[in-house]
Design a protein that fits this description.
Strand content: 15-25%
Shape: globular
Order of helices and strands: HHEHEEEHEEEEEEEHHHEEEEHEHHE
Number of strands: 17
Largest sheet: 8 strands, antiparallel
Distance between the termini: 26 Å
Strand order of the largest sheet: 1-9-6-11-5-4-2-3
Length: 368
């Protein structure tokens, strides 16, 4: 199955030859693919406040973007597109599609976005800072590509559009075709028919983003604190000048900030597993007795992100350090996103699993 998805390449070969290096076009990567959602269901999702949606329309030489939720979706017959992000959080078929790409670490998997476009519809020439697979559903779309470079952007545009875009390659995608694009490649997709496109995107945190979040993490842990004092202060000859004593105070106390590799691991696991702001879990009031867990199979909720590193496990922003004998069972649950209840119970994880069930982090299905 994976060889067909990647055009006969193994995941190892794909990563070596193409990942963050050059595009890959795979004809009939998913033969007979009919999409994962219909037009009416997609429009219905755009009305929900917990779903991220937008409509992009070309108006002359410019573009107009509107953000949902939409009480009623009304697309023009041409040059218009509706996009739903994070569809994997709401649709099991989208989550299954996302997991087809789990040869990439789960910490890098982001979401499945689905767009429906009228003929001529698209979002204009642009580039992404992350890797993306573009899987064509019903309909046809023409993709125009340009190698990664420092592109000039259209000033004051609602989207980050490339100014003076000149394509170097063109590909016409039909249902089941797949196109991989590395970060930074310029691309523009234009619908030739009413069509659906699934975009499988990957997460790529930026250094500044990590630094800001890490400082917040250290603050929660307790940064060194001290109050500035200057009992020997003299009258200021230059009132606007920052004094040397204050600079020395700041330098001294900021220099006391210390962290270890364990701090970094704990931060990164919590950061990468924390749900996005619009993600909420449905809590369950009733739960099964602990002794009955052996008769069920546990499946992580599509909204749940479960990661691990060494002895530390992270689930939806929470840190867990299980006993050594429990780690293998939890690692299998995290890797496969499902595990037999009997295996979890055998390792003494009944209470934890049932707590996660009650929180909506996972679901229990009775074995058939």
């Amino acid at each position: 199955m994976q060889d067909a998805l990647l055009g006969g390449l193994s995941p190892h070969e794909f990563l070596r030859r193409h990942w963050q290096k050059r595009p890959l076009l795979v004809r009939r990567a998913m033969p007979g693919f009919r999409g994962i959602i219909g037009k009416s269901a997609l429009f219905a999702l755009a009305a929900r406040a917990d779903v991220k949606s937008r409509i992009v329309e070309r108006r002359g030489s410019g573009w107009e973007t509107r953000h949902g939720p939409f009480k009623r979706v009304s697309l023009k017959k041409t040059n218009s597109t509706i996009l739903i992000s994070g569809l994997n959080l709401h649709l099991p078929a989208a989550d299954r599609l996302l997991r087809r790409f789990d040869f990439i670490p789960q910490a890098r998997l982001d979401d499945v976005m689905v767009s429906y476009a009228a003929p001529g519809g698209g979002v204009g020439p642009h580039f992404d800072s992350y890797d993306v697979f573009l899987l064509q559903g019903p309909g046809r779309r023409l993709w125009r590509l340009a190698r990664a470079r420092r592109f000039a952007l259209v000033p004051e545009a609602p989207l980050k559009l490339i100014e003076g875009f000149h394509a170097e390659e063109e590909y016409l995608l039909e249902p089941g075709d797949l196109l991989y694009l590395p970060p930074g490649w310029g691309h523009e997709g234009v619908a030739l028919d009413p069509c659906f496109t699934c975009s499988i995107g990957f997460r790529a945190p930026r250094g500044a983003e990590l630094a800001a979040a890490f400082l917040d993490h250290l603050h929660e842990r307790g940064l060194p604190d001290a109050g500035y004092r200057d009992p020997g202060l003299l009258p200021a000859a230059n009132p606007a000048r920052v004094g040397a004593d204050m600079v020395a105070f700041a330098e001294k106390h900021l220099g006391r900030i210390r962290w270890t590799r364990t701090d970094v691991v704990n931060f990164l696991g919590r950061f990468l597993s924390t749900p996005k702001p619009n993600v909420f879990f449905s809590k369950l009031q009733n739960k099964i007795p602990k002794r009955d867990l052996v008769n069920f199979e546990a499946t992580l909720d599509p909204k749940t992100q479960m990661l691990y590193r060494g002895s530390r496990f992270f689930i939806n922003g929470e840190l867990l350090v299980p006993r050594p004998g429990q780690r293998r069972a939890l690692a299998l649950l995290a890797d496969r996103r499902r595990a037999p209840g009997a295996s979890l119970a055998r390792h003494g994880l009944e209470r934890l699993v049932l707590d996660w069930q009650r929180s909506g982090f996972l679901h229990l299905e009775r074995k058939k």
